[in-house]
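One such given next:
>
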Amino acid sequence: GLAAVLGIVRGHHGAINVYSEPNKGTSFKILFPALQQEAASSAPKLHETDTWRGNGTILVVDDEEIVRNLARKMLEKAGFTVMTATKGREAVEIYSTQFNDIDLVLLDMSMPHMDGEEAFAQIRLIRPNAKVILASGYNKQDVMERFTGKGLMDFIQKPFVVAELTNVVQRALDKSATSTAYVGV
């Protein structure tokens, strides 16, 4: 939980100060930079239209049941068939036997036993042009730097909403549809 909060705060160029004393408790101060101008609407916009519908199969991998089920419902509403896995190792097993049927993998970064980074590497060994979107509470810049040149399609920061998730999925599928050289996309 705190790692996710830190990722979100850093994503907004903020900081967290922690004060803790034995027998007195702990307090957290979250600091954000002041705006120089009035904030614009931050409501996410879909790539083309609010009614965009996809098709195909997406494997959703997350160890948190509520996140997994929410992502599944969002993607099914957008027109996708959704498979789920609770751990990285389970995702790799599913992908290894059904990779021809899976169009995209939505993969949580932080899971016990086999994390998202290791599962991503295993999935790419099975299929070098596998389309994978990482999901995490960590900040996008930190994650993208770790995956530069490894073929990651995109990243979505948790918690996400329908419009953000649909937009990221649409961009990833559009990238792969317009790409002639898959490997290393």
Summary: The CA atoms of residues 20 and 26 lie 4 Å apart. The longest strand covers residues 15-21. Confidence is low (pLDDT under 50) at residues 178-185.
